[in-house]
Amino acid sequence: MFLVLYHSNYGHTERYARWLAEDLEGDVRRIESVKLEDVAAYNSIIFGHSIYAGSYKYGKKIAEIIQAFPDKKYYFFGVNLADSSQIENKKTLTDNVTAAIGSENMDKIQLFFFRGGIDYPRLSFMHRSMMWMMDKMLKMKKDSEQTESDRALIQAYGKKIDFVDRRQIDPLIQAIQEEIHGNS
Ligand SMILES: Cc1cc2nc3c(=O)[nH]c(=O)nc-3n(C[C@H](O)[C@H](O)[C@H](O)COP(=O)(O)O)c2cc1C
């Protein structure tokens, strides 16, 4: 039985979480509202977390769940604007997850990254201010020093962009199917 636990501010991560739960015939919940005992009954947990300035608000909670139930299967998907198929970006994204959940948990979880979007007019005052500051700082970097994430953020500043696409969940579904078949 699958449980998808997600954190999403503006719904991009939530859309992926709901599609995964639908395809896997599992349950889906916001990670904020979940207690340790709520996850006990599930065999596999899929964490979905949106990425803000490279960080994960619920990294500690994810680590706590993995430590409490080390024998479950764990998957993680991070959602941001940048394209994770760029090798450098994939490494940065992976390093950021490691910093958030702890290197001791990394061999128990499979990582995936999907592209989200941004709806600038809907952003909170705090997020707009953060984006304004990031945009100013990133534009001061030389072109050759800008990362994939930097470029994606500069491009998205002030706009409404939506990269969410159901097909992006396919590799995660495939990894789960391989795990099931491998164990049967
Ligand atoms: C303040 C702020 C910081 C962000 N930082 C990054 C970032 O470092 N890299 C990136 O690719 N996207 C970044 N994003 C884009 C979000 O990851 C993207 O909007 C994501 O789809 C949000 O998902 P959610 O709607 O589920 O919260 C940032 C967005 C905001 C508003």
UniProtKB/TrEMBL annotation:
Any single Pfam family the record assigns to this protein: Flavodoxin_5
Any idea where the Flavodoxin-like domain is? 2-162
Do you know which PROSITE patterns this protein is assigned to?
A: FLAVODOXIN, FLAVODOXIN_LIKE
Molecular-function GO terms, alphabetical:
electron transfer activity; FMN binding; menaquinone-dependent protoporphyrinogen oxidase activity; oxidoreductase activity, acting on NAD(P)H
Which InterPro entries does the UniProt entry name for this protein? Flavodoxin/NO_synth (IPR008254), Flavodoxin_CS (IPR001226), Flavodoxin_dom (IPR026816), Flavoprotein-like_sf (IPR029039), Protoporphyrinogen_IX_DH (IPR052200)
Q: Which domain of life is it from?
A: Bacteria
Signal peptide residue numbers: none
A GO biological process held by the record:
heme biosynthetic process
Descriptive protein name = Flavodoxin-like domain-containing protein
Q: Which organism is it from?
A: Suicoccus acidiformans
